[in-house]
Amino acid sequence: MDTQTQAIFEARAGIIKALAHPTRLFIVDELSRGEKCVCELTEMIGADVSTVSKHLSILKGAGMVTDRKQGLNVFYELKTPCVLNFLDCIQAVMENNMQDQASLFRCSLSGNPRGDG
Amino acid sequence: MDTQTQAIFEARAGIIKALAHPTRLFIVDELSRGEKCVCELTEMIGADVSTVSKHLSILKGAGMVTDRKQGLNVFYELKTPCVLNFLDCIQAVMENNMQDQASLFRCSLSGNPRGDG
DNA sequence: AGCTTATTTGGCTATCTTACCAAATAGCCA
DNA sequence: TGGCTATTTGGTAAGATAGCCAAATAAGCT
User: Fold this and answer.
1) A14 exposure class (CB count in 10 Å sphere: 0-12, 13-18, 19+)
2) Which tens digits make up the pLDDT trace of A63-103?
3) In Å, how far is A25's CA from the nearest CA of chain B?
4) How far is residue B46's CA from residue B33's CA, in Å, rounded to a whole number?
5) I need a labelling partner for B44 at 20 to 30 A (CA). Which of B37, B92, B108, B109 fits?
6) A65 and A98 share a domain?
7) Same domain, B32 and B62
8) What is this model's ipTM?
9) Which residues of A fall within a CB distance of 8 Å from B89?
């Protein structure tokens, strides 16, 4: 893999990494229903404010959210709603996995090694 | 955030984590053009075989690829092509970010603090 | 069985990530 | 200015991740 190809995939992975954390997925999900301030998100998440703030700054660094200061509060807004489509795919993968597990289960009950009975 | 919500977002994050690595993104990209054996991928990637094998097992664990043994080789195939749609979104985010940087650049040249000139 | 090749697994170290606390910064209001 | 609240930043310790080497496993061939 040459250096340029490497750079492209590293850049893409960097953006995906921003989503690869339960708290940050939760934040994206919440923001998909409208902007929220740090304090609101913090209360919902139940972690330290500094932790939530750092998660938000990771999402911001990846270009997925924008922030807007209003008085004492900072409001975050989802900038790239297309990430929500991705979540549909994730859901599909998960359901797929569950179905596979279910066939394994049926297979072990019937003793059918291919699980196709 | 209650325990069940937590569990859902952790499961989703787990799947996204499987994609959050340049080598694994490269693998997914290659497999989108058809199945490949470990040796082919290893040669393209240029890392140790054991490293590539571990990446593949992570993708397999997430349910994104399937493997098929044929003789001495193991062929991997993309199981959930919808992840490719996601890559389009990633690309969009990246282009967005580049445009933002470009406006910042124009802004600093013109001295326009909003970059809208 | 013994040899060869392809792949996976175990072990180890170096690096990255995350969470919390404490302290700094920013904006409002008296 | 000084106090108050919201948010960010720095520091640090615990845990996760990634890479390589060496060894184990699996399958074909003679």
Assistant:
1) middle
2) 999 999 999 999 999 999 898 888 888 998 999 999 888 88
3) 7
4) 19
5) B92
6) no
7) yes
8) 0.90
9) 80, 82-83, 85-86
